[in-house]
Write a structure and sequence with these properties.
This is LLM class F420-dependent oxidoreductase. InterPro entries: Bact_Lucif_Oxidored (IPR050766), Lucif-like_OxRdatse_MSMEG_4141 (IPR019922), Luciferase-like_dom (IPR011251), Luciferase-like_sf (IPR036661). Pfam families: Bac_luciferase. It is a single chain. The chain has one domain: Alpha-Beta Barrel (TIM Barrel), CATH 3.20.20. The chain has twelve helices and ten strands. Strand 7, helix 6 and strand 8 form a beta-alpha-beta unit. It is globular. An eight-stranded parallel β-barrel has the order 1-2-3-5-6-7-8-10, surrounded by six helices. It is an alpha/beta fold and about 270 residues long.
Amino acid sequence: MAIALGRTGIWVRHSSIDPETAQELEGLGYSAIWLGASPAADLRVVDPLLAATDRLVVGTSIVNVWSAPAAPVAESFHRLEAAYPGRFLLGIGAGHRESNADYRKPYEAVADYLDDLDRAGVPAERRALAALGPRMLELARLRSAGALPYLTTPDHTRGARERLGAQALLVAEQKVVLDEDPDRARGIGRARVAPYLRLSNYAASLRRIGFDPGDVTHPGSDRLVDALAVHGDATAVAAGLRAHLDAGADHVAVQVLPMDGGILPTARALAGLV
């Protein structure tokens, strides 16, 4: 069973979401919650969110193949599917070389993990990959529902759609700062974006889509920060989200900044605008 998503969802750390917030997000018209920061293999954080809602899809963005072995992840998938049919999407990815002591070639690691999920009966159409570069996008096209690229721009979205083809799922993550003061908003965005620039996979991806080495040098140029953390009033931010849809995304996962300020005020302001 393939999962149909609406236009917008909310990306949030898996430890920072509760059932009451999930209920309100569903009521506001968001169709999915994407759980980041590498949830554990038991995926126990997912059950209460699905139980509290009626139609909302919960996806992982992403389960890390180094820290969450495939066998217990597959067991968790089957548990969730039995209780909440068609409402969970398993996003997986290889994380970062700098964060995983056992790191090897990410393509091979993810392909092996997909082999394990195949053997455990997790359907290809119910999983997606954290794909940035050409090879991983191709793997996503061939062996999953599609791609969950993170820290990208509409230009990356456009190129990803070309590589994935018309049928594959493409969910673009976009950070937003609902603040009309550009200096303050840019400071909030830079605080979130800058740490990623020390990670080789993201730095390479950003250079590949047209940013100069100076842009991606820590802590990031204004040009880079403005693209990766769209800011302004609700109309301006909504336009930045629609740019991904216009570039070929099926769905945009909105990451609200600052992360410690609560997601609901921004989610309320953007509801219905995208």
